[in-house]
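Sequence in, structure out. First:
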Amino acid sequence: MKLPLALPRRTPGFRETALFRPRSVALLADPALPESAVLARNLAAGGFKGRLFAIGLAAPGLEAVADVAALPEAPDLAVLCLPPAAQEPAMAALAARGCFAAILPVAAPGLAGMCERTGMRALGAHSFGLCLPALGLNASLSHLMPKPGRLALLCQSGAVARAIIDWAAGEELGFSHILGIGTNHGLGFALALDWLARDPAAGAVLLDLRRIKNRRMFISAARATARTRPVVALRPGGRQIDASGIADAVMEAALRRAGVLRVNGLEDLLAAAETLARLRPALRA
């Protein structure tokens, strides 16, 4: 008698598509944190077609769930708006359910260690969040929903992100991706750039660089991305980090070799973004 073939088991772990093309999102939130209400409102108002769950607070447009164990399915992406003491237990519970991608828009001391111990990958700490306008997903702290377009923004500063989103709305320009790297103690620029280099929805890439976790990985990913689309980097305050200016000069030379245009001010970044956003993609023979 022939036994039926066993189906291969899905290997648990982080998948890029869970972050960049999620089908379901869970918000784990403490109502006492001001970011919780903003995230709940933005998630509900974005027009996302997938399932949206809320744990810890009641929010219109989100399915209320008692805890992670009670989730009807493992979400692709989790947004953790929780105090530090509650973060690692929540990450461990999510990983046990099969969710390995997270965003932490709040302070998260020891985030790298929490990710290593739980097997999760996370944006943060103090991430501005994630916005994918074409999917109707606004898991960010933005004050408005950006329109779909071809600009991609990877930012560390929430203030810079809001300024660029405001400017783009006035110019009627849209975004393919807005990703808040935050303090860059979790998922960093390299992974996001690797994805954007392969995503035909993304056009010009705007970078707000403040802290680079792994310079070699960043430069390699930036070079690969710059081969297929323009990349412009704002790196303010270089001499404040290193008064001698040596480290800043080394970084500028590395960016230039990678094909990345470095600008020193927000106005220069916006001017470059406007020009690049209005260019039509070149047709390949």
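Second:
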Amino acid sequence: MKRLLIFRADNEREDTLQALAPLTQWGIQPVFIPLTQVVFSAPLPEAMLRCPTACATSRNGIRMLHQSGFSPEKKLFVVGDASADLARKLGFHTITISPNGQASGLVSLLKKQHHTLPQPLLYVRGQEIKQDITSQLRDVHIYVKEYIGYAIHPIPAQKACLNQTLSAPFWGICVLSQSMARTLTRFMDEKRSLSSFSSSPDSLSDVLEGVPFFSLSTDITHTLRTQENLHIIDVLRPNLSTLVDTIVHYVSRK
């Protein structure tokens, strides 16, 4: 069996492995590697739960809404198909997905609807963000109530885990979140920096040469592109079923 490394936060293990199970029929064994752990904040205050509309740019944001008791009858805006699938699973009914599967598309959509959008808009996000959605929405006079619902922390001995993982044989790598992409590229930068002070060859580059990196979004791809010579395969839609189709198509062409 070909070992396919799946880098994702620890709380995504069950859903991820269940979705990728069909790959075993193609001789591919998904191996889940949790390099980070999610720590949720205190439940949302009652005043925020009264907001008529909510926006979440990650699955963890949706989990925070659900755990806090935000009404599933209210309108919810999400970024991608995977987030929408989780929202439906948790009982939300009125879900709108970003047209391009990214936060930028969600911002554009909300701006277009700002005259009819029920407000205030509750925005639940993580501690670390790539773009300031709140300011962009407030620029068009959308009343936003922002809540930092969770933080993502590295697991203990994260570098040792990565070293051990990449030293064992594997066939491919799946990068399913932006935080995972940043973690991997930082690790690669450090390894290459250390190798520049040594006369030995860059063993990490040798290990990764020709290895397919399956990227779940364009944001992830942009982060991975900061590394030279990575063989990156983009998934057309940011969901796990399309990821499976992409991997199967890639394998069948080989």
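Remark: Residues 2-37+171-253 form a domain with the Rossmann fold fold (CATH 3.40.50.10090).
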